[in-house]
Amino acid sequence: MPRKAGIGIQSFEKIITIQNFYVDKTSMIKEWWENHDEVTLITRPRRFGKTLNMSMLECFFSNEYAHRKELFEGLQIWTEASYRALQGTYPVISFSFSNVKETTYEKAKIQIFQILSDLYTKRRFLKDSGLLTENEQRYFDRISEQMTDTDASICIHRLCDFMQRYYGKKVIVLLDEYDTPLQEAYVNGYWNAIIAFMKNLFHTTFKTNPFLEKAILTGITRVGKESIFSDLNNLEVVTSTVDKYMDAFGFTQEEVTAALHEFGLSDMVESVRDWYDGFTFGSKTDIYNPWSIINFLDKKDWQPIGQIRAATV
Question: Are strands 212-219 and 284-287 parallel, antiparallel or unpaired?
Fold first, then answer.
């Protein structure tokens, strides 16, 4: 029996726990860890598994998942003893700007502040740990939807400091869809306002942060050097033309062929190639959009996605 091809699941923990269809991308963990890049920005089109891979990285590195080693048993990364020992050993801050889609700067700022303050609420125990000074405890209490821009711009930096003291290890930061607020700002006319804030936030989080171990940002596009990344000279930018992580996002031909075999559709390889092949990342050709393939595997009449849509209109 083939695994169920679940649609739209972006949680690595959920996919593995309920044993949904999953293409093993855990080799990305080793590639990222051994590249020694301090801050990595990876840009890929929508629906290419960025959020799922970020969830995978969180589950692997975060000490909150130290008791969930079974999530990786049987996957590629688990064949190496050194990585089995690494799983669940780092403090991790993981967040996403994917829902920041507002028409005004004030509304966007409120949403961003909610996301940032939730990171503090989740770690309220740090305030009561005895490691923070009175001034730091007062700062902790100021982090809310009503905080000042100054407090907000340095809040990830300071949270890394608090976590590093508590756990005795530097912090991994994962930011998914960093550019969603910027796209909305450009469309809705508040670009200059949000750029000023985001530049300060990214500078304190990813550049002048001695408590940072490593970081990854994902997005659809890269914002030019003249704006938010102008002084991040520790940033490794991985676009679709770069060989790094070239098979970590999207399905390769080998992976699609194996998936079709699992679902009893080996005779459809050439048809699927005609319908869905067409992406190239770095020197890797024949990359497929995962959303298209998973939808194809899920449909009982096995038509191309475009034909299915036409038939239902």
Answer: unpaired
Q: φ and ψ at 251, to 5 degrees?
A: -100, 135
* Nearest in space to 202 (alpha carbons), one of 232, 244, 236: 232
Question: How many Å apart are CA 148 and CA 299, to the nearest integer?
Answer: 50
- Give the whole-angstrom CA distance, residue 276 versus residue 290: 10
User: Each residue's pLDDT tens digit in the chain (313 positions)?
Assistant: 889 988 889 999 999 999 999 999 999 999 999 998 999 999 999 999 999 999 999 999 999 999 999 999 999 999 999 999 999 999 999 999 999 999 999 999 999 999 999 999 999 999 999 999 999 999 999 999 999 999 999 999 999 999 999 999 999 999 999 999 999 999 999 999 999 899 999 999 999 899 999 999 999 987 665 467 766 777 899 999 999 999 999 999 999 999 999 999 999 999 999 988 779 999 998 999 999 999 999 885 455 544 443 333 2
Q: What are 136's two structure tokens?
A: 């730091």
- Counting Cα atoms < 13 Å in the Cβ hemisphere of 265 gives 22
Q: In the beta sheet, which residues pair with residue 216?
A: 40, 174
**DSSP 3-state of 222:** coil
**Distances from the Cα of 109 to the Cα of 116, 146, 196, 227, angstroms:** 10, 10, 12, 18
Measured in degrees and rounded to the nearest 5, phi and psi for residue 290 equal -60, -40
In this structure, are residues 168 and 64 in contact, taking their beta carbons and an 8 Å threshold?
A: no
Contact 100, 190 (CB under 8 A): no
